[in-house]
Each structure stands twice: as structure tokens, then as C-alpha cells.
Amino acid sequence: MVLPIFALVFALVIHTFITSKDTISTSFYIESILILVFSIYFIFYLIYKGFDTKITESVSKAFTREYMYKYLKNEIRDSKEYTLVLLSVDNLYEINSRYGIKNGDNILFKTLEWIAVYLKSKDIYNFPIGRIKGGDFVIGLSGDKSRYKTIIELMCLKSEDFKIDDIEVQISGAINDTKFSRDIDYLIENLFELQIKNRDSKSALESTDDVNPNELEYGVINAIKREDLLIYTQSVFENDSELFKECFVKLKREDGTIIHQKNYMKILDKLRLMGDYDLIVLEKTLKMCKRSDKGKFAIHISPTSLRNYTVLTKIKEIFEKNECVKNRIILIFEESEYYPRIEKFNAILQQLRSLGVLVAVDRLGSLHTSFLYLRDLDIDIVRIDPYYTKESEEKEYKNIISGFSVMAHEKGVKTWVKMIESQSSLDLAKELKIDYMQGRYIAPLDKNENDRS
């Protein structure tokens, strides 16, 4: 486009010079030189911008994330119904580590080729595919997800034996459409959430959550601003005596409906409201604690809040001002990724313990970090993951729980199990010398009054 214009300008200057060289003024030469210089500069500028704005990325040859987002926004705006599919190479990190980055890059490229061939065999053509991150790719398809759901499920099943150059490639996916939202950011985030649920439950690639994400965010923000929440409790027993209550929190919308924890926890992280939420829950639990003569309460707290200097300072101030709740609050936390600065984290926990706070690590036996934290942190209680306690009567799980109990007691840490659903489970927990027991068989879930004062 630019070169023809430059050629025309150059031809015009030459023609004018040849036909009218005797009458041309000095200013003509100056103007001609300036025009030619700016034309050359403009050409090089456009060439540079062409290199600067890439449409496809070099490894997989898929669209870049920036271009894919821009493309999908236009498609969603112009389409009545539109479907997004997330397909991921789950073991990309392992492939890169074991076989090298070059082989990992080759896996990405050939996986996309395989996906394209499969979809074309199902008469699906001319679809955009972009790399969002790592081994995660998003495909855009016209129409609602009911047209593609079965096809994508079959593709994921077929991929169970998928290999490239004798390298096993593990693929998982998720699907949603504009019935969930017409905002591309919400759609992409929801795909990743669905994928995690699908991996855990091995269920169909379908969303069962019809909550509008924009309304959900608004409801969460409003509930935090108004400090409006409901706290339910369940008693935890030592032998046959109630020792403390575990708190379960739900947020309240302005219309009185509730937002369940599974829906709002990710939003709190996304909106950087987790610290505010943890402080609100702590304050309200302290009020419950003060209303109860000697009652003890266990609340869940994010480990990132404990490691946040501002939040930690406020937590310590709260406990320093409320001596009456000393040794009556248990902070429970879990974490899927091991925190590398473990000495610093342990020092934080010891500061809290010195103020009379008990510390518990959750989900022993499910998250690998629970073992490491039991080993590396000075804590008071560890709770065994309910996956084992639900099946505790099976011999293999019985032995595992027994091992967990011995391991914890060797470190001077109390053990805690929940989901005691029968007399036999209760008897077994006692037999295995579990310290704290909890479940619907022993005590139901109780609703506590929401104190907004």
C-alpha cells in the first residue's frame, strides 16, 4: 500500500523536475527532499510496526493471546450464540523437564495439528485457535455448546492413548458458551474453573453453575462492604465432650439470598479482597467468642493473608486488644503450593501462637504441602482429609489414618477428623486415638445470628 504511494510521489517529483526545471524555485527542491525523507521514514515505521504486532506465536503457530482476545470479542459481539472450548496439554511441564523444551514445543505444534484434523473429521472448519498460556489453548466456534459438547468429550476420551514420537500427551478440556456470559474475560476464567472441576470429578465437560459472573462479583463486593455474612457452626468433640466449634461462612446479598463459599472464594482472590474478608470473619468470630463464656471457635484463613504484613499487623492488634479470647481461636489453613520461605512463615505462626492463637493445617493426605507443613512448621493441630475418613472402615484407609495419627503425635500435634457419619466410624476414630472428632452423626450444623454491629 505504501510503496505504490511512494513510487507515485517519486514519479511526480521527477516529472516536475524534467518538464519544468527552468522555472522551478529553490523551495521546490527543499519540499521534494522533505517529502521523500518522510515517505522513507513512514515505510520503515510501518515495517517496524508489522514486526511489533504479531498475530501468531512462533512455537505452536496458534494466534497470540492478545490477538485471540481481540478476535473473540468481535465474534461474540456479532454472534447471537458463540462457544468457547479450552483444550490443555496437562503434562507439558513434565514433557519439558524430561524430554527438553524443543520436544515440548514440537508437542504443542503437533497436538494442534491433531486437534485440527479431528475437528475437520467432524465437519468443523475455519475455527480460530489461540494459545492462552503454557499448554492451554482456546478454540472459538459459532453456535451454542450443545452442538459441540459430545464432539469435545469424545476427543478428550480419544486422547487418553494419544502419543507423539512415543511421548504420552495428556489432554483435558472444558466448554462453555455465551449463555454464561458475553464478557470474554469471564468466559475464559470460567473455562479454567470448569476444567479443574472436570479433572477432580471426571464429569462431563459442562457448566452447572448458571450464576451471572458480573452479578456474582457485584454481590461479593457489596457483601464485603456491608460486612454482611452468615456464620454456621458445627461442634467438634474430644472424647465425648464438645471442645470447640468450626465456623462456616456464607455471604449475603442485599436481597437476602446467600452466596456459597465455592462461588465466592475465587472472586475474593481475583478482586484482592481476601485480606478484608479474613479480617471481617475474625472480628465477627471474636464477637461470638465474647458472647460465649468459654466457647472456642475454629475459622478458616488464607495463608496469603497471614503473610501479608498489613493484614497480619491488624490480626495481631485484634488479639492484643482481646485478651479474653486467648487460647479460644483456632486458625485453619491449607495451601496447594509449598511456600518456599518456610522459616519466615513459621516465624509468623509463632508470633500468633504467642498471642494465644492455635494453628491448624487442613487436608493432610490430600495436598502434598500438608505433609511438608506438618514436617516444617510448628503447629497445634492437623486435620486429615475427609477422603480417607469417609472410607475409614476399609482396611487400607484405616491403616493410612493410623499412620497419619502416629506421624502427627510424634511431632506433638493433635489430630482431627471430620465427616463422622456413623457409630462405627466414631468407634474407629476413638480406636485410632484421633484427638478431635466431627460429623453430622455427632452434631448437626447450627446457624448463628449475623451480628452487623
TrEMBL record:
Lineage of producing organism: Bacteria, Pseudomonadati, Campylobacterota, Epsilonproteobacteria, Campylobacterales
Domain GGDEF: 80-210
Pfam families: EAL, GGDEF
The keyword Transmembrane helix is assigned to this record: yes
Family annotation (SMART domains): EAL
Residue stretches making up the EAL domain: 213-453
Protein name (Swiss-Prot/TrEMBL): GGDEF domain-containing protein
PANTHER family documented for this protein: CYCLIC DI-GMP PHOSPHODIESTERASE PDEF (PTHR33121), SIGNALING PROTEIN YKOW (PTHR33121:SF70)
Alphabetically ordered keywords of this record: Membrane, Transmembrane, Transmembrane helix
Membrane-spanning intervals of the chain: 26-48
Domain of life: Bacteria
Recorded GO MF terms: cyclic-guanylate-specific phosphodiesterase activity
UniProt keyword Zinc present: no
